[in-house]
Amino acid sequence: MSTIQQLLKKSTLDKVDAKALLAHLINKHLNWPKSAMISRDTDQLPQPLLEEWVALEKLRAEGHPVAYLIGKKEFFNIELKVAPGVLIPRPETELLVELVIDFVQASGKKLSKILDLGTGSGAIGLALAKNLPNSQVTCVDISAEALKIAQENARLLNLNSVKFIQSNWFDDLATALPVEEYPFDVIVSNPPYIRHDDIHLSQGDLRFEPVSALTDDHDGLMAYRSIFKEAATFLNTDGLILVEHGFDQSKEVCELLQEQNYINIKAHQDLAGIWRAASANRAASVKLG
Ligand SMILES: C[S@@+](CC[C@H](N)C(=O)[O-])C[C@H]1O[C@@H](n2cnc3c(N)ncnc32)[C@H](O)[C@@H]1O
């Protein structure tokens, strides 16, 4: 027999990780809220919980991400189901959600059409749908496994009007969407941007995440080249294109936007002061496809 206090004291895991795993287990096995981690920390825990704790503690020690072990991750103001088929949403990606909300609110439009390219768990698209009730959100991913999880998240969050399309970026969009559902007011994306030879791919949580969500198997800029080339034909003249990029890619990503004749190109810093995103508008001269 053991208590929360005893398990935490004995565990060699990082304390934050150990607490997250235990909070998950007391909720799953005993339906206790997170506050019980303090209020009931000397209560004896049941055997099935202790057995699962041993298993989870071992997996975490081997490096498995906490979010996959507990099957969920908080992002912006929503909770998302996550599994090894999708990237674990990162706090820095919340910057994209904030920038889109600001843009849509400032536009004063009655209905804003938003496209989330490479939706993964649905993080960006679903956070936007939740916080912008006057929006119509479409989420695209090439991965059927990711789309299944994103759709499940939409259902759990009661965001039933969000559309999901399996496509290689824009390839199948025009055939899958009725014409009245685009051009979009916002195209937002957090694409795979890690270089194929980046050492981080074989370290930490990244070892357990889908490779196709992390890297383009090239120089880290391939997704931007494809997306920027085609996005103009799916974007309203006054619309916004916004992408996340790596900590050292701001210059290259802004240059790629420039090469494709986007205007009002801006670089954005995240809360840590890292240049983390780039945005632009579509030049009026680009013809809609
Ligand atoms: C970095 S993850 C971002 C996931 C999610 N948007 C987030 O921010 O947590 C990139 C996503 O892009 C998807 N993806 C990769 N290549 C793609 C392509 N050619 N077309 C559409 N989606 C693609 C991956 O499957 C993955 O879900």
Describe this structure in words.
The chain contains twelve helices and nine strands. The mean pLDDT is 96. It has two domains: 4-62; 86-281, 3-Layer(aba) Sandwich (Rossmann fold). With 289 residues, the protein is α/β, with parallel strands linked by helices. Helix 2 (15-30) packs antiparallel against helix 4 and helix 6 (94-107) runs parallel beside helix 7 (123-131). The protein has a seven-stranded mixed beta sheet with strand order 5-4-3-6-7-9-8, with helices on both faces.
CATH homologous superfamily of the largest domain, by name?
Vaccinia Virus protein VP39
CATH architectural name of the largest domain? 3-Layer(aba) Sandwich
Radius of gyration: 21 Å
* CATH fold annotation of the largest domain: Rossmann fold
Keywords:
single chain; 289 residues; alpha/beta; Rossmann fold; 7-stranded mixed sheet; two-stranded antiparallel sheet; 12 helices; 9 strands; 19% strand
List the topology elements.
Elements: H1 4-10, H2 15-30, H3 36-39, H4 47-61, H5 66-70, E1 72-75, E2 78-81, H6 94-107, E3 112-117, H7 123-131, E4 135-141, H8 144-156, E5 163-166, H9 173-176, E6 184-189, H10 211-214, H11 222-231, E7 235-244, H12 250-259, E8 263-269, E9 275-281
Helix pairs in contact: 2-4, 6-7
The chain binds S-adenosylmethionine (SAM).
